[in-house]
Amino acid sequence: MxxxxxxEIREVKELTKVADNEILLKIKRIGICGSDIHVNHGKxxxxxxxxxxxxxxxxxxxxxxxxxxxxxxxxxxxxRPQLVCGICSACKRGDxxxxxxLKVEGFxxxxxxxxxxxxxxxxxxxVPHSISYDVAATIEPVSVGVHSTGRAxxxxxxxxxxxxxxxxxxxxxxxxxxxxxxxVLITDISEFRLEKARESxxxxxxxxxxxxxxxxxxxxxxxxxxxxxxxxVGAEIAxxxxxxxxxxxxxxxxxxxxxxxxxxxxxxxxxxxxxxxGTLMYKHEDYEEAIRLLDKGLIKTDxxxxxxxxxxxxxxAYKFIDKQGDRTLKxxxxx
Length: 335
What we know:
- By secondary structure, the protein is an alpha/beta fold.
- The protein folds into two domains: 22-138 and 301-334, Medium-chain alcohol dehydrogenases, catalytic domain (Quinone Oxidoreductase, Chain A, domain 1), CATH 3.90.180.10; 143-278, Rossmann fold (3-Layer(aba) Sandwich), CATH 3.40.50.720.
- Helix content is 29%, strand content 22%.
- The chain is built from eleven helices and 15 strands.
- The protein has helices at residues 34-40, 89-92, 133-136, 139-151, 167-178, 191-199, 213-221, 236-245, 266-271, 284-295, 314-324; strands spanning 22-32, 56-64, 76-79, 82-83, 103-104, 116-120, 124-127, 160-163, 184-188, 204-207, 228-231, 251-254, 275-278, 305-310, 330-334.
- Strands 1, 2, 3, 6, 7, 14 and 15 form a seven-stranded mixed β-sheet that branches. It has a six-stranded parallel β-sheet with strand order 10-9-8-11-12-13, with helices on both faces. A two-stranded antiparallel ribbon has the order 4-5.
- α4 packs across α5 and α4 (139-151) crosses α10.
- It is globular and about 60 Å long.
């Protein structure tokens, strides 16, 4: 992507050499996510152009360096797109997902939107044969769900609200259920996305265009209220609704990416002793847990994959997403 909305397809020299700790992957699927769309619109705050996109992917191991033991040629694999420094205070305490010098492939470093891609062993993950290349390319967003729900503490028997039924909101809701939540309500303005949530096992939904937020939570939770909120839209009104209606002493995890700074009722945050929690991406163990949940069928993402485009029509995929709006979820690029 050389500029917002402008994609160039180029022929490059084929990759043949890998270092001792590297893996050469033949990319099979690339998922387009909301952050990619922000880049396409020129609204991602931490991306400069030109940039090779792609950070949700699956591929086949083609070649490995002599020291690699995690994967072998012929295996399915995916990988974390985080490039970290390893020397900052965050990295030293194990929080490399918030590395002070973090670069993410597809945003601050070139990503996987190419036939062949090299990744270091510390970031690669083997994918079981039972998981298709399509589903394997959703391991990244599921890892976001695993990490963000872990940030909220113990969810067992708690009532949960997730604002936003896009791909991330959907998997966050599924992960909350997998962690033992009591009732999980997901809200959105798209009936299509809410239907996809129901197909994915999320029983309680609300269309915010037709039902006020307070009415929805009262209908689902009654006098129990809800104790944890996940804001997965990146919209001011969604965050305000959670702050205004959540039970006192509760937690709100901010997952969405905001193109503009939201206003929040900090009177409620203070007087209700609410905790606002940030979350960024994931760690390696979140990927491992995402693969386990998908392999066991505890998380389902096949319903989220709504469209496929060949690699040569990458630009058309973005145009389709812009045109279809709320009638699409996860669009896959096929190589």
